[in-house]
Design a protein that fits this description.
The complex is a heterotrimer of chains A (295), B (159) and C (750). Chain B has helices spanning 25-32, 88-95, 105-118, 124-130, 142-158, and strands at residues 4-10, 13-19, 51-54, 57-60, 73-75. Chain B is an alpha+beta fold and 159 residues long. In chain B, helix 2 crosses helix 5. Chain C starts with 17 loop residues before the first helix and ends with a helix. The chains are: A alpha+beta (295), B alpha+beta (159), C alpha+beta (750).
Amino acid sequence: MTAEMTMTDIRFLAPETLDDAISAYAAAQGAARILAGGTDLLVQMRNGVARPGVIIDIKGIGELTDIAEGADGSFTLGAAVSGAVLGEHPRFGTVWPGVLEAINLIGSTQVQGRASAGGNLCNASPAGDSVPAMVAAGAVVTVQGPKGRRQLAVEAFPAGPGRTNLAPGEIVVSFTLPPRPPGSGDAYLRMIPRTEMDIAVVGVGVNLTLADGVVTAARVGLGAVAPTVLLVADAGRALVGSRLEDAAVDAAAAACRAACNPIDDKRGTIAYRVRAAGVLLRRSVAIAAERAGRN
Amino acid sequence: MSKLHVTTTINGEEVEFLCTPAQTVLDVLRNTLGLTGSKEGCGTGDCGACSITLDGRLVCSCLVLAPEIRGRKVGTIEGMAQGDRLHPLQQKFLEMAALQCGICTPGFLIAARSLLEQNPDPSETEVRYWLAGNLCRCTGYDKIVRAVLETAADMRGAA
Amino acid sequence: MNAIDNKWIGQRTIRPDGADKVTGRAGYSADNAMPGMIWAKILRSPHAHANIRGIDTAKAAALPGVKAVVTARDITEFPVDTPVMLGIQDMRWMSRNVMAREKALFHGHPVAAVAAISEEIAAEACRLIEVEYEVLPHVIEIEDAIRPDAPLLHDFLRHEGKPSNIASTMVNKLGDIEAGFASADVIIERSFKTRPVHQGYIEPQACTVSCTADGKVTIWSSSQGQFMVRAMTALLTGIPQSSIRAIPAEIGGGFGAKTVIYLEPIAVLLSRKSGRPVKMVMSRDEVFRATGPTSGSMSTVKIGAKKDGTIVAAQGTFHIQAGCLPGGPVRGPVGCSFAPYEIANVLSVGYDVVSNRSKVTAYRAPGAPLGAYATETVIDELAETLGIDPLELRLKNSAGKGTKAAYGAVFGDVTFKETIQAIRNHPHYAAPLDRAPAKGVRRGRGVASGFWYNAGGESSAQLNITEDGNVTVTTGHPDVGGSRASIANVAAELLGIDHSRVSVLIGDTSSIGFSNLTGGSRVTFASAMVVTQSAEKVITQLRERAAKIWKIEPEAVAWSDGEARPAGANAGQFPPLTLKELAAKANEMGGPIGAGVQLTTTGADPGFATHVVDVEVDEELGIIRVLRYTAAQDVGRALHPDYVEGQIQGGVVQGIGWALSEEYLYDKQGRLDNASFLDYRMPVCSDVPMIEPVVLELPNPKHPQGVRGAGEAPLVPPLAAISNAVYDALGKRFYSLPMSPPKVMEVLGG
């Protein structure tokens, strides 16, 4: 948008099919922005950070607003499903309590009425709350563009602060969360100075599967401590095979600290973030393990 | 470019307006429709003073684009009382002095009504977290939380 | 006045402005529109410090839809060498704050303004204004600003004969400070830092202004004083006050910050140039960047005591941020810090320090919390060192009748002791505290006290009897927190009528006499006084009317329960005459009934508060939460208890934010880095517990209802009370605010 243009030059589209959305998005050649909940986009427009020529509201498209539980126990979650709607789903929160908590931590009750996991991922903030939990869950994101549909792991989606690995013209369609083996549990904790209404200073998602008290699978997602949300494979490895003894959990916490590559900013210092990452790992593991024990 | 024509329902009445695609619902409510009860404290979804319901769901009207409300149902503070009868929350806010300057009050009332519709018997903690997106700088929240809890009790008693 | 006999004073009546506020109908600053109205926007400096070499507005003025452009050239210039005072505000600085003149002094300093047919065009026109800046080195923090080699903001400021960023010095002295310390058994000296915090009102500054061809101006805006708006606008535009009508909109919070103006004179000048009404509304970003906040500080406090706890000497040095132009609240810490205590030897010195930040404005008990933070922390350490309970140490040294304060007052019946006793006797202070409820979790309890001067000053009221025998009261003070409700209680009580028959309104500058700002805990004190005198005059009129009807002496008529009754020898001789009956006969018996009083009120008595707080600290993450809070304060008389409690509860939560999470953060270029509610971090509903107010009512003998004032004192003790509680929990002291999690972990050695 050039300086001479005003807000009235923007076009608003509300396609009813994914194909229409993708054609319109591609046709705009980078000048369009996708509107899901709008809780990031409208703030960016107000601040002048985003000046889209076309706004494409995707909330009228079924696949982007559905929540579906597969026969195998997997979940497919439309990219534009709001946190509030997901919270009302009768099953999702019992299967993936950590992912739901993470999504429900995005903003206030009001923001929850609009904000979506798809938007949170596309905003590509290293501090996005849903992302570490999705990474821990092993969620796969489905994207579609003019060249067709593809899937990628959530941790492979962000490219840097505010940047994604979406190809030109691609939009996020849905998340797929894998079936849950028995003995599984997940958790997400973030550190914020207040109790609400803050951006994570550190966020840790943990997903565990236990059999007879032994960890058989573990994934750890770490947010707000590096340019992108991280999958901390070393932390998962430290837990697998253990009975979550102190030594194993300490090793996983150390792996989280080692994975940190944070910055000093208005929300936290480097030293603080590194330390907090280890603390939150231990606390998240405890919650996830307790949940796993119940399943 | 010509403006968009939007037909919607606000507080039970069909309303038409013209807007630009990037105008927010809050802007239209306040500056086009003269419904100034929804307040702009920040314009970025951080204060809740512009809270409305959209198809019954609580949202910040500063974070909704005006064309998005086409064909939908909007509830604002102006529609909270039924005729000359205040909503029990409005009445309780008056009786318990749950407002000082009053600028945050419409947002708190809309948010609290939304809570009680979902959860008629909230704990103090549930009230506090539900209302965490509504900033008040005058009251320290004490009398607001008490008024919401008492209204809930009254409404349960009356139900 | 005997509280027990009161029917309305002290009752929790429904506020007169309540129904409008719960239905969204109340008209706040930004809620107004005028026919033909256009919108204005401000161009702000992108630099923290820069000479302005030139401003070219030609392209902006040529943009279609633009109706007027103004710069500092359009605003009255006040030479820097001659003070022009309006209350505590100096128009030399106000003029330069409203619009940068020679220099841009902070990032966000207004440089020009544009009015256009839409907000978008006005904003676009601002981008077309070409400003030639010569960027200068900037300075943000106090310690940097007072260095000998610091960049200087103003060549006209001198300190000890040399160019300096110290704009002025204030000294309060009592006794012989050196002899005092020489006689002490224990001396504790500590240094403290606090960050600027914003008042955080939810309503951004806004105004709608009309200037007509005949030069008559109407201003619709919210403020803490419509007469202040009129006077400052008059001075900054050169328009006489008689041509300006300032209408007080409902105010969405001020806390001191709306005792000055930012937009009104600019809007007036744009309206005059364009011939159109002009509306301006600040964004939240602009509010954080360019209004308020209150000062950050750098303080050193030294206190000496005998072994028995008698404080013999106290010394304070307070560097207070003024922002970019002189005028920080130095009087707050210098005067208030030691005022609660009877101390023979005091030296309290304050410095007003300028730096490249927005000019500070008042914030509840301006400056006093900064001083109390330092003093009350040192007193806590002193109590521990001496092995004396911290409340007992305060009681032992508390000021009483006849105490001479270093700021000059000799106290009358002050009530500091009573607030300490109220906390000492409160179940909270004795309640068991589980100090280590879980691994890595510690709890602690802290206390602190505070002082505020309170104030009187100019106030006007008009009380009229309507033709149908009801009552309207008009005052000149914006109602920030329920003062109309208090006034309605007073008028109903004095006239002996039902509360519902009284309506209370705030007059505009053309309909009521001069009334000073709503601030300093003065409004209920002052307006209750003038309303009381107005009511007394009206009652005299009513008695005279009845006497005339009954053909007896007015002295033989009593006013009771809303009616005139024959008294003394005439008692029972005539049926009483109600207010309604007297109003119905008003015309034939001498004309309309009503009275106004305009007065400079005196007799304000200081306010004291003592608080106790329990905190919980997460030792692994450094997060501090307030678990329980009890605040005792003597308010003299609570005309409406709800709104007195509300003042205390709200003030305490502001203090919690100040202590734990709020701060102004700047980047290396001197730009504010957290100009949003998201990153400024005011307490939200889930951050705080219920706040228990303990309202003491020890009447001020110099006020008709005994009022002292309520709004300032609650914000004075919390910073130290919370800091002392954190020490109690962790065994480590904090000497700077906020106690943010990274800072807590640093202190814990994590």
